[in-house]
């Protein structure tokens, strides 16, 4: 996994507000005061170069709603934005790229219609698509599985999906241990070790449960290409400057 290590501050938006969900549960939402644009501007002012922007309403219902916000963030902050939520077709990808997205994140559809998404990678280029395969470890079988529809429905085996996308030319993979997401319990290193075995050429973004700079360092040491930071930044448990410093070590 060559290249630098990238910090992706995350802004999850639901009902126009910055929120975080615990373990992907829409009933366990924490709201944060500042408006999304204000948060993005603050991250840019602290040295971030990328932003991870998620439309949580669209992730469950479809129909990305944040294009005006995306355009404004790109135009006013200089951040490169990877964004997703509710991407269901080729036109959705094109509209987000036209609105200024550097990369479009595809989640549920990447599980249900892998051939379609593989075609988008070929059409738009490997640098413009991030596939999000967020997983849960099946306690019975010991295998990782990828739920869909806002993490509310069972999906497919992680191993087969990763192998297929690696063969299709995928470059950027984001993967979250759903049980760690929003819990401040640390990323699951075993998940990223598994991904490195499955597809060592992918630039993997770690996500879920990040608490501090040590978690950033651990993800980097495991060969990840970047890390998504959500609740820890929003609540001041981890300073963005510290995370960026760790990324440069």
Describe this structure in words.
- By secondary structure, the chain is of the alpha/beta class.
- It contains 11 helices and 13 strands.
- The strands form 2 sheets. Strands 1-4-5-6-7-11-12-13 form an 8-stranded parallel beta barrel, surrounded by 7 helices.
- Helix 1 (36-45) runs parallel beside helix 3 (67-77) and helix 9 (213-221) runs parallel beside helix 11.
- The mean pLDDT is 92.
- It comes from Luteimonas endophytica.
- The active site is at 12 (proton acceptor), 134 (proton donor).
Question: Features of this protein?
Answer:
249 residues; TIM Barrel; three-stranded antiparallel beta sheet; 13 strands
> How many domains, in number, for the residues?
1
The CATH architecture assignment turns out to be Alpha-Beta Barrel
CATH level 4 superfamily: Aldolase class I
CATH topology: TIM Barrel
Order of strands, main sheet, comes to 1-4-5-6-7-11-12-13
Low-confidence region ranges: none
**Coarse morphology:** globular
Query: Kindly state the mean pLDDT as a whole number?
Result: 92
Number of strands: 13
Order of helices and strands: EEEHEHHEHEHHEEEEHEHEHEHH
Helix-residue proportion: 25-40%
Strand content range: 25-35%
Structural class: alpha/beta
CATH secondary-structure class: Alpha Beta
Sheet with the most strands, sense and barrel status: 8 strands, parallel, barrel
- N/C terminus separation: 16 Å
Q: Total number of helical segments? A: 11
Give a quick precis of the structure.
It contains 11 helices and 13 strands. It has 249 residues and is α/β, with parallel strands linked by helices.
